[in-house]
Amino acid sequence: MKIRMYSLLGGLALFAGAHSAAAQGSQFFQISGPAEAPVKAFRPDGTLVWSNTLPATNYLIHTVGSLPGGTNWVDYVQIPATPGLNTNLLVSFNPPAGMALIPAGSFTMGDTVGDTDETDAPPTSVTISGFYLDVNLVSLGQWLSIYSYATNHGYSFVHPGNDWAKNYPVETVDWFDAVKWCNARSQQAGLSPVYFTNAALTQIFTTGDTNTTVYVNWTNSGFRLPTEAEWEKAARGGLIGQRFPWGMTISESQANYFSYPTADIYDLGPEGFNSLFDAGSQPYTSPVGYFAPNGYGLYDMAGNVFEWCWDWYGYPLGQPTTMNPTGAAAGTNRVFRGGNWRFAAGNSRCFGRSANLPVATGYFGFRCARGL
Length: 372
Fold this sequence. Notes:
Distance between the termini: 22 Å
Shape: globular
Order of helices and strands: EEEEEEEEEEEEHHEEHEEEEE
């Protein structure tokens, strides 16, 4: 890998490094803010070291695939500044297999575009630590592989999961099934499971459903569901103030959802189920990774199947603190995000909130997160 440094011009510093092989090619970055931000180093591990003397301000990292960037620079991450040196991991050249780095930073969670129907998602500034997230929804093939391991190692599931083929997202799994599967995936990989059935965090969650209280150890290294805030930050792909992971409007060439343009002015249609997958027999899901990825390299962050998150549904956003919020302390329904092949475009917005009983199955899938 080759690192190239560029000179500082006013309050804008430009720096670049070769991206990972999976991303194919180079990725260039620039940092801008309310004052000069001298870049001290861009390390071979993808960490930016920069200095700043204006704490309590935010700096923006923008990215582009080739120089000169012109008007093609796009938002990548917003970073709160601190006195002295700031150290931020921007890219990961060796992420866990099938996962992408979501860089640490702050963002405005909730409806930033003024859609009047999303009344439970007012704009809320939150800060998220860096983490990894599955590039794709958990596929049926991936589900079955871990499911086989799990059921041979003391795990029990209420729902076996299904879909058309192994490269389609697993669906009709409830929240408890997803959480247990995360634990089994962790154990198979030799990582510390995250979910437990006692407050002392000694009894690994392997069985149970409706009446089981699940406790979480956020410091363990294993796979887990993303929090609602993590999911939204990842879905936005670094973009600021947009409805969808790519911009302000949506069409069937960008996601698998039920189009209803007469109801949503941002829906470009054509009306009805996505014609690419309307095969005459439901579910009209699409293969994982079919549509273009967002700015963090994530697929299907809008449409296809709903995605379970960790949080109990609650209001307002940003509970119990706006630093790595984990949602309400208790509740009745668990949050799911991301839209669905049979639901309208509003559900596929980055800030679209939904929730249901954790034993609900419907057209639910999920993807896994991991801490750094």
